[in-house]
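Trying the structure run again after the queue cleared.
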Amino acid sequence: MTLGRYDYERRYRKRMRAGVIKFALLAALVLGVGLFSYQMGIEQLKGRDVTLREEIATLSRQKAELELLASQMQHAARTAEARVGELEGRLQREVPTGDLAKLTQLVAERLKGGLDANRLAFVISQAQIPRNCQPTDTKRFTLSTPLLKGGARGVTFGNGTVTVTGEGQSAHNPQGNAESWFDPGQPVTIRITGMGGKGTTVSGVLPLHQSLVVDNSEYRFTIAAAQRSFVEVTADRCAYP
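Done. Tokens:
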């Protein structure tokens, strides 16, 4: 009886030890798996944190680039609007409309047709509201040249109030020799002098146009080539102002 009971207790203790060992092994296994899973979770969180930080940095750069681009586009839009406004204002100022457009077209047609620009400018300058003017007076005189300097050469207008004189370059014959008369194809110099010494000078190829105010009268002159050696001077005298 005593021996049988002893064997039973020994086997019981042996089973208990085996159970404890199994439990310990199982607990160690569970703990190891838990620690491994925990460590893996930590590493995954670290990797995800790095990824998120990189994504945030990328998005921040993209946001800054987009903000810069938007600012540049806004500046370009404002610049374009200002340029459009400037061009519209310039268009309104410089492109003729109405009567001015018709006049501009007419002038262009006359110039294209061969009318001298100086003559056309003079005609336009003479167009004005009717003034108190005397009848047109036309006279002629011989221009002085290097070979024709002697004597009084010129004409007067307004009962001697204004004197017109001038000089030109000598014409040349086929042999190249200088003549006494002036060459109408070369520039000439016309001097217009009023009483008291007030005067004006105009130079260039004929015809020429010039004006002079003396006392209460304005004299407007057109000087053109006439017969050999002569120039023809046409004067308009009007009240001034």
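The longest strand covers residues 230-239. Worth checking whether this holds up in the mutant runs.
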